[in-house]
Write a structure and sequence with these properties.
Blueprint (H helix, E strand, L loop, with lengths): L4 E4 L7 H9 L5 E4 L3 H9 L10 E4 L2 E4 L1 H11 L7 H24 L4 H30 L11 H14 L10 H11 L2 H6 L12 H11 L2
Parallel strand pairs: 1-2
Antiparallel strand pairs: 1-3, 3-4
Helix pairs in contact: 1-3, 1-6, 4-5, 4-6, 6-7
Bound molecules: 4-S-glutathionyl-5-pentyl-tetrahydro-furan-2-ol.
The site of 4-S-glutathionyl-5-pentyl-tetrahydro-furan-2-ol has 17 residues, from helix 4 and helix 9.
Length: about 220
């Protein structure tokens, strides 16, 4: 069978959570990195970008857009989406939260230095006062190894991704969250994730000025 193919810039952005979900599910995927306006405009002209936007992924004979729609499809396809609707809605709540937090980081990369610093300080504050306390409580109340139904799900994958991303901004961010520290170790040791965390995997590095320049030049903003 042909592997899923991802179309995005050579960076994290909105595509990184899709890379994480595929990797955690043990699914090999290919990428076409959009580095020039010509590439982007060809995809648009060929009608392959629903709303003229990326992320776009080709999978199972479909051309999919919209990050959350893609993530939901993959979670369901690889049995990472709960055993019933009540578990699925919890997974959606948790992943909407971690996606909100990660998109704050992604967008900060495009701000001028002073504003970027303020935005990233706010990300760490939100993580420490809003998001991580919520997940610490969920783990405490639930008393299981995973966030939902004591089975590994998309919610666990994305929380680990968010924890690691915030730790890149402040390495001590989990100091007050002992259950999250244990969660991080546990989920990082899941073989498919452990492999994805090794150098040389398809995981993208934090956004740098080159990446910002390329995206700006392609999207003309
Ligand atoms: C470092 C991370 C990248 C930051 C920049 C990205 O975040 C977004 O704000 C823009 C890009 S991602 C690229 C952007 N894509 C989206 O905004 C998709 C939003 C959609 N709701 C989704 O979730 O997939 C894009 O194609 N824009 C062209 C344009 O709309 O005409």
């Amino acid at each position: 069978a042909t592997k899923p193919k991802l179309f995005y810039f050579r960076g994290r952005g909105r595509m990184e959570s899709i890379r994480w979900l595929l990797a955690a599910a043990g699914v090999e995927f290919e990428e076409e990195f959009i580095e020039t306006t010509e590439q982007y405009e060809k995809l648009q002209k060929d009608g392959r970008l629903l709303f003229g936007q990326v992320p776009m992924i080709e999978i199972d004979g479909m051309v999919l857009a919209q990050t959350r729609a893609i993530l939901s499809y993959l979670a369901a396809k690889y049995d990472l989406y709960g055993k019933d609707l009540k578990e699925t809605v919890r997974i959606n709540m948790y992943t909407d939260g971690t996606l909100d937090l990660m998109l704050m980081i992604a967008l900060a990369a495009f701000k001028p230095p002073a504003e970027k610093e303020q935005d990233l300080a706010l990300v760490v504050k939100r993580a420490k006062t809003r998001y991580f306390p919520a997940f610490e409580k969920i783990l405490k109340d639930h008393g299981e190894d995973f966030l939902v139904g004591n089975k590994f799900s998309w919610a666990d994958i994305q929380l680990l991704e968010a924890i690691l991303m915030v730790e890149e901004l402040d390495a001590s961010v989990l100091s007050d969250f002992s259950l999250l520290k244990a969660f991080k170790t546990r989920i990082s040791n899941i073989p498919t994730i452990k492999k994805f965390l090794q150098p040389g995997s398809q995981r993208q590095p934090p956004p740098d000025s080159h990446y910002v320049k390329v995206v700006r030049s392609i999207l003309h903003f």
